[in-house]
Every structure is written in structure tokens, then in C-alpha cells.
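The freezer alarm interrupted the setup, so I double-checked each line after restarting. Inputs confirmed:
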Amino acid sequence: MSGEVEASTEEQQEMQDTVVSPEKAEEVKLKARYPHLGTRPGGSDLLRKRLQKGQKYFDSGDYNMAKAKMKNKQLPTTAAEKTEITGDHIPTPQDLPQRKQSLVASKLAV
Amino acid sequence: VNAPRGGVGGGNDFQWCFSQVKGAIDEDVAEADIISTVEFNCSGELLATGDKGGRVVIFQREQESKNRLLSRGEYNVYSTFQSHEPEFDYLKSLEIEEKINKIRWLPQQNAAHFLLSANDKTIKLWKISERDKRAEGYNLKDEDGRLRDQFRITTLRVPVLMPMDLMVEASPRRIFANAHTYHINSISVNSDYETYLSADDLRINLWHLEITDRSFNIVDIKPANMEELTEVITAAECHPHQCNVFVYSSSKGTIRLCDTRAAALCDRHSKFFEEPEDPSSRSFFSEIISSISDVKFSHSGRYMMTRDYLSVKVWDLNMENRPVETYQVHEYLRSKLCSLYENDCIFDKFECCWNGSDSAIMTGSYNNFFRMFDRNTRRDITLEASRENSKPRAMLKPRKVCTGGKRKKDEISVDSLDFNKKILHTAWHPKENVIAVAATNNLYIFQDKIN
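Predicted 3D structure, all chains:
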């Protein structure tokens, strides 16, 4: 019996909160959509995600393969020019195709 | 009595007018073209922008022409260069963006101009110099540069300096690298004109402008156990006059003022600024929206301003327990926090700036709106950076967001706001009423109307 009375007091408090604070109402909405959202508000999970920005690839091989996929159109011409790289020629830094430079000028500078 | 249409940043007759817009018109915005920083130099003659593609564009103000009385000098392209390139850290499998996070000008000491530009990991000192003369009449080489046949040289002459078309050259003079494990969010030139600080999420370093192979670490908030991480550094700035004082803000909404005379490592602050929070109003969003995205000292050095998600606060350096002024930027967003969290907008980092006399402050919002607050008259105004209002010297009309109930004509409802059109970066000319507003890939320049 007393449990029921307590529950309705809590409900009353929540209703009051909703009326008083739009922020709390938004929190209720969010928790309804994501019930497993971190117990600590805005805590270390968020911060650690922020610190890890940029970490997209498992390793450098993964990174280079991803870049190669993007540059598929360019690969054939590069290979044709530097045929001596494949096979028995030991490449030097000067021989290797350079990473594409950003040659496009800013549109603000028009 | 008519509602004041201007009056912010100047006298009662003050009105902001459109001056220029730069950048592509088309709707399709290339990511590289997104402007990531805007900064006037110390005299206001030059205006620099940095973008996500790692490029810097510098505009120079035209000399005022006596014939064109109605408009002040316009800003035209002076120099542009590629400051940073994308890199890959093989050791950590970390892609390093070329996006320019911050540009800060050095005070001008000779004919050349110097600026610092920083991406996530590296800071570079660029020298921008003019060349308007060329030497002609060399003895050993001809005009094309080819070496002359030495036996043909029978007389000696002194090369003469001849005028040439103005060429503006940008060259990297110093590269300050490998000092930041985390992402650089701020750089700030010290008033001693010899040192500067750079801050990342967990550390702040002090550099000497001449020395690139080492820097002093002056703040380190990295916990021994990363599981215990509760806050990160979000911004830092040197005091404008006291070269031993700097401040840094945190993701928890606090600001620490440090004194480098007190200790070599400034982990212990000299002053701690925090506004007390009502514990009953705390919600999941409280800490996120209290995170400070920018901190700026006033020109006087007496105050500092902080920007958090919904407001701008002015603090008196002599009072740590609460700000002296609080301005609501877009309070109507408080009832939209759930969706702003879902679309990540709640993490947008807005900057703020002072006008030259510290009488007004400006910050951006969504829908290409930006807000200005006059500290003396307590008036505020919302303006829009839009090509629809871009006739030369067109007066800007104040905008209003309707928060509920009946929407009046010319008002825009909160649900109609475009959250992709964010104004994160704005700059105010150090002496005049000229402002630069970055709206995604376009740069708007507004000036006051001359009566």
C-alpha cells in the first residue's frame, strides 16, 4: 500500500519536472529512445570517442588499400609510367608515385 | 516607438549592411571548401581564412578611395597557399586531417606579415611578403636566367632594381611538429611577441617562435588511468598584456587561469572560474551543453568571454564564482536537445568575439544566423548571412525566431531552422565596425552604414 503511494509521488515529481524543465523532458525522450545510454551523463565514453577522432583504419595496410580504392582511376597511368618499379628494380623514394597534392585552389580566392 | 533596428555595436543610428560575399554559389558544397577559421590581423588590414582542405586565403583591404564615399575599402584576395596536407601516422594508424583549426597573426614588426596556422598536430609559421622590384642587368646571367658565356663578358655593370608587378609570396618559416599526442584546438600568441601556446585535449605547450625542436609542457591533465578521464581542455588563450598569464577552458564548463611565474608546470591553477549549478536542474545534457567551445580575453584584459552551447558569458577576472554577464544565444534550442544530440549538433563548437572597444560581442547560431550583444545598452540583434540579402550596401534586417504559439510574419519557427547552416566562426575588425562571418563555404563581410 505504501509502495503505491510512493510511486505516485515519484510520478508527480516527474510530471513537475517536465512542466518546469524542458531539458528534463528532452532527457526523458532520449532515454526512451536509447534505454542503454551511459549511466554517467556525458561522461568518459564521449570524451574517449573525442580523443580517438581520426582512428579509422586497423593499420597502415588497411589505410593504403582504402586510398587505393579511391584512386582506382589514377592507378593505370601511374603504372604505365613507372614500369621499372615492378619486378627486379628496387624502388627509391623518388620513383614511387607521390601522394596526390591538393592542387585545387580555394574558391574564396577567385 | 519603433523597435531598434540597429543600435548594436555602435550608436542608435547604427545599422549593419552587406558589403561582400566570397565563395562558390552552388548548393553542392565540397568538404574541402568548408571554412574552419577566420581571423583579422592586428591592424585589420588583412583577413585570413583557413579551410578543411588545408588552404589559407588572405584578403587585403583596399585603400579607401576618396571618390567612393559611401563604401569603405573592400577586401580582395592578397595571397593564398596550401598550409597543411593530409598525413597518415603509420605508428598509430591515425589519419591526420589537413583542416586548419586556427590561424593567429603575429604583430607586424617589419614589411612582411607572419601568421601561425595549425591543424590537429602541427603548427606552421608562415611569412607573407611582397616583392615589387626585380634586379636586372646581372653580369653572369642574361635576362632569361641562362648563364652567359664567361669569355663574352668584357665589362662589369651594377644590376639595377626595376619595378615589377606585385607578387605576394608565402613561405613556411618554421614547422612546429610532434608535440601533440591529441588534437590541437587552440594556439595563442603571447604579448611578449616571442612565445606562443598550443593546446590539445589534454595538454598545453609553450613554444618559442624561433625554436622548433622543443617546447615546454605547461599543463598536463592526462590522468594516470584513462578510465578516470572526466574532462578535456577545449580552448586556451594568452592574456593580452600579461605575458605570464593564460587561461584554458574545459568540457565541464570551467575556466582555469594560470600564472607561469608561479610554477613551471601549471597544473595547479591560480584562479578557477565556475558558475554554481542548481543540482535539481541537472540532466543528461547539462555537462554537454556546459562544455565551453571558445574563450576570449577582452582587449582591455580585464574580462574574458566564454561560449557554451546555448549562451555566452562574460567573466570579470577578479570574480571567480560567477560570470558578470550572461547572454542567451538560442535558448529555444533547450527543448530540442534530444534531436540535437541525435544529429550531433549538440557538439558543434561555436566561437565568439569582442569588438575593438569591448562594448559588443558576437557569436554564431544555426540557419546562418548570428547574434550580437551590446554590453552597454543590453540590446541584442539576430542577423542572417544570406545571398538573398546581398545587394551592395543593403541594410541587414533583424531576424526573429518564433518559439511557440502564433508565428508572426517574417519570423521563422524553430522547426524550420536549417541546422546544417551553422555559423561557427566570426571575426570583428580590431578597430572598426567591419565583421567577417563564415557560413559553411562562403565568407560574408558586413560593415556599418555611413550616414
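Quick read of the result. Helices of chain A lie at 2-20, 22-33, 44-51, 60-70, 75-81.
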